[in-house]
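Reviewers of the previous submission asked for a worked example of the structure-prediction workflow described in the proposal, so we include one complete record here. The input consisted solely of the amino acid sequence. No template or homolog information was supplied to the procedure at any stage.
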Amino acid sequence: MSALRQERQESVSWEDRRVEARHKAAGSVSLRLNEDYQVAFEARLMDISASGFRARHANSHLRSGQECDFALPGTRGRAKVVWNRTTAEFIETGFLILLHETA
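From that input alone, the workflow returned the following structure tokens.
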């Protein structure tokens, strides 16, 4: 990658690189890890797009690449963990929706 192109990419915020519009969302999302159905927890929905959502929670078990079942009001399905951001107060996770159906 050329130095100029890399400099341009670094100067553009990550929000501006998104392909799809994100919409602020509120409410709760139920999550259950597919690898261990004993691990189920609630998260706070932060935003949503046509192909994914971002949620805030306190579960440190989520790793990039893991799949989980999710349930939102009116929809449920399977999602893949794309990224995690951990702070002292919370963990935020970005999910890619793999499949969904109306509940």
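The radius of gyration is 15 Å. We consider this example representative of the routine output the project will generate in years two and three.
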